[in-house]
């Protein structure tokens, strides 16, 4: 399970400032807003001060995997997934992430990547200054995501090597113009936070300082985990609202009581 460790200098170009602005309540076009410009300037100054410090740790693993219905089997571990129950376009397929992995019935193993990243830049020591604390927190969130972007680029071109000739500008990377996807736990395609327990089983998140709460939340907060899929047709989608039938089926496949699964999927229940 290879690890990658990045300094601020390594991953600074991969920061998506649009989401930084969003975390502060600004619109993506906030670059013309005086307050947003000041915020960005202070964030950049903090990065300048700490450019040589280790900013993030990443961990990834490329695993033999296959799909079976709405499940993935990754190195013998069952990863139950959810399928869309509604689409926004008539005639469009109801998607599940397992659709982008070779079926078990084919007899041919496929590959799925697992990853986790956490920001390592220590927060500014500013007791009694909530603004500085929040600035450090939101910047750490962006550094964890930037490290993931850098790590995924390395995986695509070298470690996995399915896109060795990829040559995108950073703007193209941030716009996700590359082949494949990396759905993160808690996001619309992979909304069940308890999946972190499965990822931890195969990655051992403590190796990079991540621990899980009893609900599957990651600590430190500025951490991200998920899957990497290489299929050229793979794309992101939102699971959306699910019904009681899918809740019961999913709980059975996850091996949890329905009542417990309801807590993890509360935001998806009709």
Write a compact overview of the structure shown:
The protein is α+β, with helices and mostly antiparallel strands and 270 residues long. The chain has helices at residues 8-11, 17-23, 34-49, 130-159, 170-174, 195-203, 244-254, 258-264; strands at 3-7, 54-68, 71-74, 77-80, 110-119, 211-212, 218-219, 223-228. The strands form 2 sheets. Strands 1, 2, 3, 4, 5 and 8 form a 6-stranded antiparallel sheet that branches.
Describe this structure in words.
The chain is built from eight helices and eight strands; from the N terminus they run E-H-H-H-E-E-E-E-H-H-H-E-E-E-H-H. It is globular. With 270 residues, it is α+β, with helices and mostly antiparallel strands. A hairpin with a 2-residue loop joins strand 2 and strand 3 (71-74). The chain has helices at 8-11, 17-23, 34-49, 130-159, 170-174, 195-203, 244-254, 258-264; strands at residues 3-7, 54-68, 71-74, 77-80, 110-119, 211-212, 218-219, 223-228. The strands form two sheets. Strands 1, 2, 3, 4, 5 and 8 form a six-stranded antiparallel beta sheet that branches. Strands 6-7 form a two-stranded antiparallel sheet.
